[in-house]
Structure formats: C-alpha cells, structure tokens
Design goal:
Length: 192
C-alpha cells in the first residue's frame, strides 16, 4: 500500500554525527569552564584578591565567547548543540552557589577555629600566612581585641576580621578609624 506519496519524517535524512575532534574540543571548553568556576568559588570562599577574581571572570567571559561560537558551529554543522550545554550549566550552577553565599559561609565555617586560636594568642606579626582558608597579612591588638587583616578583603584600605571578646568595638571617631560590622559571637568584620 502507498501512503499517498508522503515520505515519513526523518526516513530520508541521514544524521551527521559530530566528529571526534569536535567532541574533544567541546570537552576542553567545558573543562576550562569548570576550572574558571572552581577558581571563582575558591576566591569567594577565601576572600581572595579582587584583581584575581576579575581576571578569572575575564577568562570565564572569553571562554564563554569561544563556547558560543563553537556551539553555533556544532548546531549548524552537526546539529549537536546539546553537547555544549554542559558549560552554561556549570556557569549557572556556580552563579547560584555564589549568589546564595554558600562559599563565603563555608570559608568562615572551615576557618573559625583556626582564626580564634590566632586571635586569642594575638601575637603581632607581619607577613602573609594562611589561617584556615584565609590569607592573613597582619595580626595586631587594637580596640580591646585582635585584628586579623586579610589582603583583598576591602576595596581600598586594610580590612579583615576582628575578634572582640570583651564586648562591642568602639565606634569610629575619625575618618580613617576602623568600622566594624558584627559577624557572629565575638567576631566582627572591619574595614578602614
């Protein structure tokens, strides 16, 4: 019997599979995206340097541009744009994670006990060292507590964490005095 001369959809088409090199290159794009996103999460977790965060965001944007062109080529030439959906999925997941504040909270949770030990000792010291996940440049006693300066934590001046076990820190009296914001228990964040 005849079906009226109408060919069933897809019977006459041959599906072009993407070549292996295209799939490998797509995998490399996804891997670079994952590395950039992990760097963003680490920098948010450890209050890393703002300049490094901007550089990582730039690398991620460049990777996104390459991804867009590569996906368009794959969609047109091989009808395989779905292969490249992993990269934007990783970016969306990372953006949600950063927006939720989970990396920042996790960094604090992982570091609080080490920071507390350093703050109780409050041995004045200069020079970068890692305490928990944070890089601390100076530790100094001030305002009835201990200040731990984290490079890159503030936009302009020194900033970091303040351990104030004897109550609230004093209100700023001068323009360049530390300004405190309560974080948890005897802990405050400070900036100048």
């Amino acid at each position: 019997m005849s079906s009226g001369g109408v060919e069933a959809a897809g019977v006459g088409e041959t599906k072009r599979r993407p070549p292996r090199w295209w799939l490998i290159a797509s995998g490399v794009i996804v891997a670079v995206t994952v590395v950039c996103c992990l760097a963003v999460v680490w920098l948010m977790l450890s209050h890393g340097d703002l300049g490094l965060l901007l550089l990582t965001a730039f690398a991620l944007a460049c990777t996104g541009l390459v991804w867009a062109v590569w996906s368009l080529v794959g969609l047109i030439a091989y009808r395989a744009g779905w292969v490249s959906l992993a990269a934007p999925a990783v970016v969306v997941f990372t953006a949600g994670l950063v927006w939720s504040g989970i990396p920042k909270d996790l960094g604090w949770w992982l570091s609080e006990s080490a920071l507390e030990r350093a703050a109780i000792a409050c041995s004045p010291a200069d020079g970068d060292r890692r305490i928990g996940v944070y890089e601390v440049s100076t530790i100094r006693a001030e305002d009835n507590g201990c200040l731990l300066t984290v490079p890159g934590y503030g936009l302009i001046g020194p900033a970091g964490f303040a351990y104030m076990p004897h109550g609230e820190p004093p209100a700023p009296q001068h323009e360049y005095d530390e300004r405190y914001r309560h974080q948890e228990g005897p802990w405050y964040s400070f900036s100048t």
